[in-house]
From TrEMBL:
<keyword id="KW-0645">Protease</keyword>
<dbReference type="InterPro" id="IPR034016">
    <property type="entry name" value="M1_APN-typ"/>
</dbReference>
<dbReference type="GO" id="GO:0006508">
    <property type="term" value="P:proteolysis"/>
</dbReference>
<keyword id="KW-0031">Aminopeptidase</keyword>
<dbReference type="InterPro" id="IPR014782">
    <property type="entry name" value="Peptidase_M1_dom"/>
</dbReference>
<dbReference type="InterPro" id="IPR001930">
    <property type="entry name" value="Peptidase_M1"/>
</dbReference>
<keyword id="KW-0862">Zinc</keyword>
<dbReference type="Pfam" id="PF01433">
    <property type="entry name" value="Peptidase_M1"/>
</dbReference>
<dbReference type="InterPro" id="IPR050344">
    <property type="entry name" value="Peptidase_M1_aminopeptidases"/>
</dbReference>
<dbReference type="InterPro" id="IPR045357">
    <property type="entry name" value="Aminopeptidase_N-like_N"/>
</dbReference>
<comment type="similarity">
    <text>Belongs to the peptidase M1 family.</text>
</comment>
<feature type="domain" description="Aminopeptidase N-like N-terminal">
    <location>
        <begin position="102"/>
        <end position="282"/>
    </location>
</feature>
<dbReference type="GO" id="GO:0005737">
    <property type="term" value="C:cytoplasm"/>
</dbReference>
<keyword id="KW-0482">Metalloprotease</keyword>
<feature type="binding site">
    <location>
        <position position="394"/>
    </location>
    <ligand>
        <name>Zn(2+)</name>
    </ligand>
</feature>
<dbReference type="InterPro" id="IPR042097">
    <property type="entry name" value="Aminopeptidase_N-like_N_sf"/>
</dbReference>
<feature type="domain" description="ERAP1-like C-terminal">
    <location>
        <begin position="614"/>
        <end position="929"/>
    </location>
</feature>
Length: 952
């Protein structure tokens, strides 16, 4: 999945690593039975399902996880009783009420292995009503009926008690049940949308609102659609069928195998092929007024190409062309580098109108929010191409890493998400080398991971999860971005070719089963001839990351590692980890020489470089650590930026900013370093400059003299570049030039550059009055809307609000909503928040309002006041989806730099039910404490520096 996010247990567990269960693996006989492909000289798995699939798949599903492993796991996991193991589900849904109650009926038949005599079977179930359950023998004979059905809403389980004992055997568990197609973006749910053009007559409709239906099961919401054994290592195969109106289209993981008449005229049953062995969270289906664009893979799979399709609701399919181009090429690319052919007979992507995440990797039917898969050439911001290419690649990587081989339990979520993040960027770099995405990854991914991991509220990459219901809150920057950052560090150290060879071996060894972090390290150790376990385990299983402090002497430097905390006050007991740190020292006149040694103890000396030479540590920021140079060295590096790579510049700035916050560096030293970037031409470096200045202006925003000085500093820094790049886009502008123009205009306008503000107002007026609707270039909507709302009043705000309501641009609503939140008028802030919580804004986008106001330092306190005054209403609007709820609270309240407000927040939530966002509150507290301490310590120093240099 891309883009996700009680938990007191998780927080406590972040200090210690739980006992690890024995890994579950597919049988050696299965692995040896996998044939090889003739399309490559490398051996490849050929997991196709038309060669006696049932026998192969059922064999694996019955033995992928031993009773011994389940017993060991139960010591540190709250899991289902091991009395029953699923082998195959047959799910049949019918009598769907497409409007009104939105209810449906279901018949579930689970081929089940009973492992010991029992009169009770427990499954996961949420918001499902079970009418009855019967156990049949394989010969069809009735063995037992339910005498009692009970529910545990807290653990989301249903207990089926039977009239007589069922002996150990292979049985069929038959369950009749009813459920609801909810509107919570979880389980089997409905999404409302405004049709483009005339919708089909059978399209689900309630009043004037049209709907499509789809599923979102990760991590624990398959149980919200049907009763099931909803744990990742209880894999099984699935047969699925659904009754729908004849004019509608049904999709699922596998191709349609048959259609037949439904229970009434106008209805049909659609039946799909059996899936491979997989976890419940990967099952998916969708129903709607769909159309699609299609491409065939260039690569042949068992002698023929595979169809790759992007489905949309009617009228939008042409906006799926770019995603389609990315998708079919990426399927082939991953088949090549993973040395395993794409294992399904089709690859579908689906645009879903209401979606809490960015996307979800359901095997064979990947679902996306619309802005992550649709691009309207000429109407969409060019930045969305970058987003689409990455998100498509990330989810397709999961078809192997996560779907074919699944983490054994949720504590190893990072195995799925960290790897998919890294390899997603690898694919984008392969297809778009001109985008320089590894620098983007360093500027965006690595820096965000650093930020969260520098808080005491962080957790290890591999975090113990006792109860699966806790897992939503670790879909965060640690699992995704720190996970991918350490994978990047390891791949650089081992060499990309060696690393990918080890990954391919790992996938082959554990295909259709579950695996652990240790299994990946073993495969990489074998491929590289190095003990990967030894040097990577602290990175995965310990909290935090180090700062390497450098001291210089003639002819040598000393380096020392310590845990880095944003508060700069790590206690001895928090600083016990010794990380393996690749130093990557570039030295020499042009930094042409690279020393690849690693720091493997708390401190060491490095000869050959020192105060009399030129050097830079952590080449291209490949290592996941901060570097603290002596002030004179930092100044020297700041004057030699032409010798540094883009990644080196980003890292230098990021380190200096973080060290200023922690007190191990100073803000005056950071400002002096920033001055050296006045002539910079690289978009991604400017992106880091922008985020660094944005944080400074946010933290010191309440001191008017400092705020004005930093605004002037920003204007003088950015003005030459902004004036040089200008407003006009050229036909031959490359992607990075387009992004640079947008960023520089936004930065200059936001710092009060008079001519740029005036030009932004002129263009906005032409557009708003209808004199010239083309006055605002597509790629400048965000900058111009934001500047005019920020500098203007109700007229400008209402114009952007009106654009939000009428735009048919796929990205237009996101852009408008973000811009509206930059108003400085208290009355408009109130209107804005009422609007955010109205039915005009989809639940999936409500957090955008919190993000916009949190970044608006003049009025962010009004967001906090609104939350307090309207809590019952806010809670009612957000509580239907915990991911959105957590995101809104965390993103809306983390920017304050005032201990008093931090105390207010803690006191306010003390009496609330915070299960959905308890961890977010700890992050908020850490952020506010960090910001407030930083402000108190450096405020006077910053003002003194700004005055001394003519900015204040």
């Amino acid at each position: 999945m891309w883009g996700r996010r009680s938990i007191a247990a998780t927080r406590r567990a972040a200090i210690a690593i739980a006992v690890r269960p024995k890994p579950c693996r597919p049988s050696p006989s299965f692995l040896s039975s996998l044939s090889t492909s003739s399309t490559s000289s490398s051996p490849r798995v050929r997991p196709r399902f038309n060669l006696k699939p049932a026998s192969r798949l059922n064999l694996i599903s019955t033995r992928y996880c031993s009773a011994e492993a389940r017993m060991m796991a139960s010591a540190d996991r709250d899991i289902l009783p091991d009395v029953a193991k699923p082998i195959n589900y047959h799910v049949s849904l019918f009598d769907l009420q497409l409007g009104g109650s939105w209810g449906y009926k279901g018949l579930l038949k689970i081929d089940t292995k009973i492992t010991r005599a029992t009169k009770e079977i427990v499954l996961n179930s949420k918001e499902i009503e079970v009418q009855d359950a019967v156990v049949f023998g394989k010969d069809g004979s009735e063995l037992a009926k339910t005498t009692e059905i009970t529910y545990d809403k807290t653990s989301e389980r249903v207990s089926l008690k039977f009239s007589q004992e069922v002996s150990p055997s292979d049985v069929v568990l038959s369950i009749n049940f009813t459920g609801t197609m909810n509107n919570a973006m979880a389980g089997f749910y409905r999404s409302k949308y405004t049709p483009v053009g005339e919708p089909g007559a059978d399209t689900p409709k309630d009043g004037d609102t049209y709907y499509m239906l789809s599923t979102q099961f990760e991590s624990c919401d398959a149980r919200r659609a049907f009763p099931c054994f909803d744990e990742p290592n209880l894999k099984a195969t699935f047969d699925f069928e659904v009754e729908i109106p004849k004019g509608q289209t049904a999709l699922s993981n596998m191709p349609v195998i048959a259609e037949r008449e439904g229970s009434h005229s106008g209805l049909k049953f659609v039946t799909f092929e059996k899936t491979p062995v997989m976890s419940t969270y990967l099952l998916a289906w969708a129903i709607g007024d769909f159309e699609y664009v299609e491409a065939m893979t260039q690569r042949k799979y068992q002698g023929k190409s595979i169809p790759v399709r992007v489905y949309t609701t009617r009228g939008l399919k042409e906006q799926a062309r770019f995603a389609l181009e990315c998708a079919h090429q990426t399927v082939d690319y991953f088949s090549e580098i993973f040395e395993i052919e794409y294992p399904l007979p089709k690859a579908d992507l689906l645009a879903v109108h209401e979606f809490a995440m960015g996307a979800m990797e359901n095997w064979g039917l990947v679902t996306y929010r619309t802005t992550a898969v649709l691009f309207d050439e000429g109407k969409s911001d060019n930045r969305y191409k970058n987003r689409i290419a990455y998100v498509v690649a990330h989810e397709l990587a999961h078809q192997w890493f996560g779907n074919l081989v699944t983490m054994d339990w949720w504590n190893e979520l990072w195995l799925n998400e960290g790897f998919a993040t890294w390899v997603g960027w690898l694919a984008v770099d392969h297809f778009h080398p001109d985008w320089n995405v590894w620098s983007q990854f360093v500027a965006e991914g690595v820096q965000q991971a650093f930020h969260l991991d520098s808080l005491r509220a962080s957790h290890p990459i591999e975090v113990p999860v006792r109860n699966a219901l806790e897992v939503d809150q670790i879909f965060d920057h640690i699992s995704y971005l720190k996970g991918s950052s350490v994978i990047r560090m390891l791949s650089v150290h081992l060499g990309r070719e060696t690393f990918l060879r080890g990954v391919a071996d790992y996938l082959k060894s554990h295909a259709y089963g579950n695996a652990t972090t240790n299994d990946l390290w073993s495969a990489l150790s074998k491929a590289s001839g190095q003990d990967v376990h030894a040097f990577m385990d602290p990175w995965i299983r310990k909290i935090g990351f180090p700062v390497v402090t450098v001291a210089e002497e003639p002819g040598q430097i000393s380096v020392q590692q310590n845990r880095f905390l944003s508060t700069g006050d790590a206690k001895p007991e928090e600083d016990e980890t010794t990380w393996w740190i690749p130093l990557g020292i570039k030295s020499g006149e042009k930094l042409a020489s690279v020393d690849t040694r690693a720091l493997t103890q708390k401190s060491d000396n490095v000869s050959g470089v020192g105060e009399d030479g030129f050097y830079k540590i952590n080449k291209d920021l490949a290592g996941f650590y901060r570097t603290n140079y002596p002030p004179a060295r930092l100044e020297k590096l700041g004057k030699s930026l032409a010798l540094l790579s883009t990644e080196d510049k980003i890292g230098l700035l990021g380190d200096a900013a973080a060290l200023a916050v922690s007190g191990e560096g100073t803000t005056p030293a950071l400002l002096a370093l920033l001055e050296g970037f006045k002539g910079e031409t690289d978009y991604l470096v400017w992106s880091q400059v922008s985020s660094t200045l944005g944080n400074l202006r946010s933290v010191f925003s309440q001191n008017e003299a400092v705020a004005d000085g930093l605004k002037k500093f920003t204007k003088q820094l950015v003005a030459p570049s902004a004036e040089q790049i200008g407003w006009e886009f050229k036909a031959n502008d490359d992607y990075l030039t387009v992004q640079l123009r947008k960023l520089l205009i936004a930065m200059a306008g936001g710092s009060g550059h008079e001519s740029i503000v005036a030009e932004a107002k002129r263009r906005f007026d032409l557009w708003a009055t209808g004199q010239d609707k083309s006055a605002i270039h597509t790629n400048l909507r965000s900058a111009i809307f934001t500047l005019n709302v920020s500098e203007g009043g109700r007229k400008e705000y209402e114009a952007v609000k009106e654009e939000y309501l009428r735009t048919d641009s796929v990205d237009g609503k996101e852009i408008c909503l973000a811009a509206m939140g930059r108003t400085k008028d208290a009355a408009l802030v109130k209107d804005y928040l009422d609007f955010v919580f109205s039915d005009k804004v989809a639940i999936q986008d409500m957090h955008s309002g919190a993000v916009a106001l949190a970044a608006n330092s003049k009025v962010r306190h009004l967001l906090w006041e609104y939350i307090q005054s309207n809590w019952t209403f806010v809670e009612s609007q957000l509580s239907s989806n915990n991911v959105v709820f957590e995101r809104f609270v965390r993103m809306g309240l983390s920017k304050f730099a005032d201990h008093r407000i931090g105390d207010e927040i803690a006191a306010f939530f003390k009496t609330k039910n915070t299960g959905a966002y308890e961890r977010a509150l700890v992050i908020i507290s850490d952020n506010i404490r960090t910001n407030a301490s930083y402000k108190e310590r450096d405020e006077a120093l910053v003002l003194e520096w700004l005055r001394a240099h003519g900015y204040a």
